[in-house]
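Lab notebook, bench 4. Still working through the backlog of constructs that have no structural model yet. Next entry is a single chain of 173 residues. Request: give me the structure tokens for it.
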Amino acid sequence: MADSIRGNHYLDYPDELRKGIMLHRYIDTFTDAHPIYRKSKHRLHEKYGHYSGVIMDIVYDHYLAKNWSNYSDEKLENYADSFYKLLQDNYEILPEKIQKMLPSMIGRNWLVSYASLEGLEMILFQMDYRTKHRVNMQEAIVEVKQFYLDFEEEFMLFFEELQQHCKEKLAIL
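Model written out:
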């Protein structure tokens, strides 16, 4: 949702959502500048250019979903169901782009599907479709498999730092 809200339009939302949007922006900025993330992304840059960042975001989401039990006591399936319900209950305040995406997100259970390589490949295919097949993102599954353990190790190190920085940022917000 936060990616669809530009400029200061986040001010149009209730306080808790504003904080979430600001945290999301902070996470994006922190991630893009982080040396570990940049190292991961660099492996894909020659073939996928600008889209290497999009692909790497999805790949890191895969590792988060795959290793969910390391970060939460709640099962990923339960978290996803609660999240989808929250989106449905607040449908009227979602940006139009998210409203249109919601049936597919829920129907294909995106959050849970990220946990498997098959789900990751499906999401890369969907993203490639949305970007009008500019770089054949679904082909990145080859590099993901090739560097799978390297990417996972990098994600784990990165995510540990990200969690700490988010706690600090939330205390400020």
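Notes after review: The mean pLDDT is 95. Residues 148-172 form the longest helix (25 residues). Flag for follow-up if needed.
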